[in-house]
Specification:
The chain is mostly helical. About 30% of the residues lie in helices and about 0% in strands.
């Protein structure tokens, strides 16, 4: 029988919870600067493509390992198959320590220890989600984030 990582279950439970309080949304301008650490492997924005890692447009509400045209690690595919969905809470856990949710991920990023940095990064990534249900700042769009 396949074992499910307890942290994945926690992350799934968190993703099913309520929206992130406005005070925890972070600063997207500061997040853009933090995103530079991610940009060697990931792209966002108009025309974003997969690199070493998948593009991150529309990540909120998306099941882990769900881009059909990207080759994910088996660990990430397993996480998606067991219900891991990217929300602010699950991204926060993953960005803090990528191996906390997927021990054998190919992502070599060591993580962001600072909660504020993670909140700011997540706020920046929200700019690239077109789904108003996951965007408290729904007036902006993907094209205005460039």
């Amino acid at each position: 029988m396949r074992q499910i990582c307890p942290l994945i279950l926690i992350a799934v439970a968190l993703s099913a919870g309520s929206a992130v309080p406005a005070a925890d949304l972070g600063d997207p301008t500061a997040g853009k600067k933090i995103y530079r650490r991610c940009s060697p492997c990931h792209q966002v924005g108009v025309g974003a493509r997969h690199r070493v890692g998948p593009h991150l447009n529309g990540i909120f509400g998306r099941k882990a390992a769900s881009h059909k045209d990207f080759k994910y690690s088996r660990a990430m595919i397993r996480a998606g198959d067991t219900g891991l969905e990217w929300q602010a809470e699950t991204l926060d856990i993953f960005v803090k320590n990528p191996r906390s949710l997927t021990r054998r991920t190919r992502m070599s990023f060591p993580g962001l220890r600072s909660k504020k940095d993670r909140q700011d990064l997540i706020a920046y990534l929200r700019l690239f989600s077109e789904d108003p249900a996951v965007r408290p700042d729904a007036e902006q769009s993907v094209s205005s984030a460039e």
